[in-house]
Amino acid sequence: MFFVGKAKNSEPRMHTNFFKEKQQTTKYAKERENEFFEKTKNSEPRIHTDCCKKTKTSGAVVVFPYCLFAYFPIAYLPISLLPICPGQSTWLVFASLDGYKRRKMTRETLEKSTSQAAVFDIDDTLYPERAFVRSGYNAVGEHLARQCGAVVAAFATTSDDIVVANTATTAPNQPEQLADWLWQRFLAGQTARAFDDLNDEFHLGLDSAGIAELVAVYRFHRPGISPFAGIAAVLVKLKSAGVPLGLVSDGPAKMQRNKLDALGLAGFFQAIVLTDDLGPRAGKPSLAGFELARQKLAIPHAGCAYISDNPAKDFVGPNALGWLTIQYIRPGQIYAGKQPPPTGKPKHIIDNDEKLLDLLLG
């Protein structure tokens, strides 16, 4: 019994309402506890988020007693108890360990099934590089026919592979003939000093500036190239699956951009990194291009994959960063047979689109 006070013009009295309300509260809590046991004893443990209702007395709040957990010592754990505020209900949240494990497993499964970012090379990965070589030789032949037609006609000669006649009537065929000579040389495995040898073979009389001009024509022409069969469908599937796509490629930046324009694939990629834009020492096997691609894609290194063709240099950088590295082998590739350095071996070597999709999508 508690002394409350004296009312005006009345006798002092005792306040007994508190005890009556306390008895009601205790009875209500017991009923709720029994009801909870009845609902859960014959069923699987589950998350229980029922709210205790307050009693009629303002500010009196009922909360499940902690002895409840003794009834299910393993199945339930308290997750959080919101602050008890007068006049408001308080939630006591229970979580089933079994349910928690199921949710955790589901979350981990989703994380594992989330495809990693796929970063591609360009040359001999998205299209056959030899097609660019042939296209470049054609452009050089046409350039020589336009700019040096008189010189070609004057100094035309005969070689073992091709005859360039010293007559004006055969002049229209000269671009193709010069391109064919370069192409046959390439097929024989001779790739260095192509235009110097062309100059010497046909006595073109070009100085170093003239040779440099041919190199520029070769590199920066608008190439007649097309993607590998099926590569566009692969990119569509990856894009549809929510896989972030990127590119990391060496070579003069303008040349690589011309290739992408000709291929019509640039729109698939969220991050395009041309190492020439980053400086003279940023080409593979440098890490610079891969670091930038990862930043642009906002994906951890462990969630990135690099798909390329040249084991001599392409996989050193991404291997060092913990990427998944995939060498895609196709017929006619120029550098696929190169030996990798000790740290440059790809983690996977594949030869078809299905295997690529399996690695990236699981």
Please provide a written account of the structure.
Residues 1-8, 10-22, 43-115 and 150-172 have low confidence and may be disordered. This protein has helices spanning 17-40, 68-71, 97-113, 129-147, 149-155, 174-187, 194-202, 208-220, 231-240, 253-263, 288-297, 316-320, 353-361; strands at 2-5, 13-15, 51-52, 76-81, 90-96, 117-120, 245-249, 271-274, 304-308, 324-328, 348-350. The longest helix is centred in the first third of the chain and has 24 residues, at 17-40. With 362 residues, the chain is α/β, with parallel strands linked by helices. The two termini are 72 Å apart. Helix 9 packs parallel to helix 13. The protein has 13 helices and eleven strands.
Task: Set out the fold topology.
Layout: E1 2-5, E2 13-15, H1 17-40, E3 51-52, H2 68-71, E4 76-81, E5 90-96, H3 97-113, E6 117-120, H4 129-147, H5 149-155, H6 174-187, H7 194-202, H8 208-220, H9 231-240, E7 245-249, H10 253-263, E8 271-274, H11 288-297, E9 304-308, H12 316-320, E10 324-328, E11 348-350, H13 353-361
Parallel strand pairs: 6-7, 6-9, 7-8, 9-10, 10-11
Antiparallel strand pairs: 1-2, 3-5, 4-5
Helix pairs in contact: 4-6, 4-8, 9-13
Strand content: 5-15%
Radius of gyration, Cα only, in angstroms? 38 Å
Q: Could you say which overall geometry the principal axes of the C-alpha atoms support?
A: elongated
The biggest beta sheet, please?
6 strands, parallel
The CATH topology of the largest domain turns out to be Rossmann fold
